Amino acid sequence: MTHRAYLSLAIPLIISTMTTPLLGAVDTAVVGQLPDPAYIGGVAVGTMIFNTMYWLFGFLRVSTSGFTAQAYGAQDSKQCFLYLVRPFLIALAIGIIFILFQWPIKHTALTLIHPDENVMTFADEYFSIRIWGAPFTLANYVILGWFMGISRVKISLFLQVFMNLLNVVLDLLFVNILHQDVKGVATATLISEAAAFLIGMYIVLKSSNLRLSAISNNELWNVGEFKKMMSVNRDLFIRTICLLTVFNLFTARGASFGTEILAANAVLIQIHYIMAYFLDGFANASSILVGKAVGANDETLYKRTLSLSSQWAIISPLFMMLIYILFKDSIIPVFTKNQNVIELARSYSIWVAIFPLAASFGLILYGVFTGATETAPIRNSMLISLAVYIAFLLIFIPMFHNHGLWLAFIIFSLGRSLFLAMYVPMLNRTLFRKRGAINAIS
């Protein structure tokens, strides 16, 4: 495994994963051109609610990718197909539940966040439209994870790019031409998610020789496989709750400083998402390669992947930091024309520049551990990082206000890297020994 081979897998995944935050970023940028900052605040709050809902079940993509990569490495086509079907059924069920309980979800979220009255009105409008895309969004997580697991990264890239390009076109149509404002950006996102789902399902059916009718009920509902899947999903679910707690506290505390600071933080957090998803592309590449190594019992491939992951965890954040520092004055106005918001965002932009340096190892090593489906260290490191974050929020916000909020967030990001890196030696010692014992028993 060379740097070139690693990058040939990572680069399409970087492009694919970076398109994920563009749904929120494009929505933010389009409404940011409108004169009232309450529009951007409303979309920020609405996006936060959906991030909360969907990120709780982000394990559907991550675990699907990890398990599928292991089955693919073991050349077990039936297990590959089963690792698609099981989480797919779960995704549809969860999406339908979200639709059925949309009113209490919306009411609870807006009550907890308690933004300004105008911001709340726009957030309500955004939520009431986008909620109908819940089954499509969650099923898309599974479809994308499955294609990544079988190394069909170009298909993942196509689906993500298609969805986001369609979203851009529809945003411009609904907002700039039809003047539907927040309702327009929500409708554009809903249509884009549904279209990506339909195309993804078509490609899945064309890509697999197996059909559900070829799978017995005992195979589909295998208790041992479900226990293994749910154990991994439980740890990733806890990890996601920690992440959402961090971002929800961040948004809520930012809202307490006023609408303009809320809007400035929303712009910067969208830039942060783009950086994070850039790093997530490397994480996905590492996850696929580690999954293959585990499935094929190839310890050499695992060690080489770990080495490459560590090297790119150093190179990539330096590149991102340089690009942002050079072009930040051009990047921020892409998201809003409000001069007060632009100036506020610039005054806090140093924290976004630091973010990739703090977070890179945590994000990329996350891919290594998920590919190995060894997720307890991910859960533990995130719980510790959250505790550190809350402690520093209490210390720094009274002292430095919004700067204190950002400082606590950077410390949290650094904690994710340090606390997860502490588990790498243990993974190196035990991973293939454990897999060998499992194979001997089976």
UniProtKB/TrEMBL annotation:
Keyword Ribosomal protein on entry: no
UniProt GO molecular function: antiporter activity; xenobiotic transmembrane transporter activity
Any one GO cellular component localisation term in the record: plasma membrane
InterPro entries: DinF-like, MATE_fam
Places the protein is found: Membrane
Primary location group: membrane
Regions that span the bilayer: 40-60, 81-105, 129-150, 157-178, 184-205, 236-255, 312-336, 348-369, 381-400, 406-425
Membrane topology: Multi-pass membrane protein
Key word Transmembrane helix present: yes
Pfam families per the UniProt record, alphabetical: MatE
UniProt keyword annotations, A-Z: Membrane, Transmembrane, Transmembrane helix
Annotated family: Belongs to the multi antimicrobial extrusion (MATE) (TC 2.A.66.1) family.
Classification via NCBIfam families: matE (TIGR00797)
Protein name: MATE family multidrug resistance protein
Organism field: [Anoxybacillus] calidus
